[in-house]
Amino acid sequence: MKVLILSVSTGFGHHATAGALAESLKNRGAEVEVVDIYEKINRLFQHGLSKGYLMTMKYLKTGYRVAYRYLEKRPPETSEYSITGFINTLMGMKFSSFIDDYAPDVVVCTHPFAAQLVNEMKRRDWLDAPVVGIVTDYTLPPIWSDVSFVDYIVLPSEIFIPRCKKRGISEDRIKTFGIPVRRKFSTKMPKDEARRRLGLRLDASVVLLMSGSMGYGNIKDSAGQVHETHGEMQLLVVCGNNKAQYEKLKPYDSPNFRVFSFVDNIDEMMDAADCIITKPGGLTISEALAKELPMILLSPIPGHEERNVEFLLNGGMALRVTKTFPVDEALYQLFSNPERVRIMEESIRLYHKPNASEDLAAFIMTLKK
Questions:
Q1: Which phi and psi (to 5°) does residue 89 adopt?
Q2: What average pLDDT is seen over the chain?
Q3: Where does the pLDDT of residue 46 fall: very low under 50, low under 70, confident under 90, or very high at 90 and above?
Q4: 3-class SS at 206?
Q5: Domain 2-182+354-364 = CATH 3.40.50.800
Q6: Edge to edge, what strands does the sheet with 152-154 contain?
Q7: CATH superfamily to which 188-351 belongs
């Protein structure tokens, strides 16, 4: 069985989701290729989209929030004559040669832009393989209601089924497997063992502070507040690809204030931690939920990440930092109330889907045309 997984370079989460699913599919004997769809069409466009996304999140957050809210309110787009339909038709014409050469049995989209392009290809009979779209945030981003030719849409939770129905997505197209994460996040290492592996003390709490692969947000101030107020705790600060943040924080590196750039053992750090302070990206949330780790949320990207925050707060799984509720106070509230932590962990177990990757892979293996 041949599976083609399509992603887009706007953040690391979409690619990581694709990688997690590919791992599970390969373990089941599938032939899998993961492709950045715009890399195959136009690398200059791919580079511009990635840079444009970062610039928008940095300088045009209010405009992005307004646009996102507008798209949430407007009716689903079904016309093939829309501007986006026209653009994706042109791109689909170019991408169809790659599809013909690879001849996939199933196509999976981990980004709504990829789903839009494939939707036009299905509309015009340039693709006859089943298509599965994966929603990688804890909401229904508006574009997902526009792709009526995508056969199945995978949601992070059953609670979004009513929203899908309101947006015209029939229940027979909805699957609620969750957001795929790699197998190493689906199991838990004993906390003491994880701390020994990381060279941490066993007699003090551990807090993991991270801002995602892009290093979005100013975590220097948050790290300073935590260390100044809770210096007895062991703080692990992961800066991601934000080299400027890393260089600012590196001089403060100490046994109780450990500073890292991009790492590949976040799973071990989560196992060692008592809580995580993080930007609420969909993949990071899914990994933390799989590890049953209470969360303190800060610096959400407007739009989809603000919806992630709503999901976690309404479900009792996290606290949120605001201007009037700083991170050190949030951390104090959490650690001074063990019963609150216990309730948060129980709430997480109600919603988390640590086996999402395996469950979705098993479903995809049944779709061979």
A1: -65, -45
A2: 90
A3: low
A4: strand
A5: no
A6: 31-36, 2-7, 106-109, 131-134, 152-154, 174-175
A7: Glycogen Phosphorylase B; (3.40.50.2000)
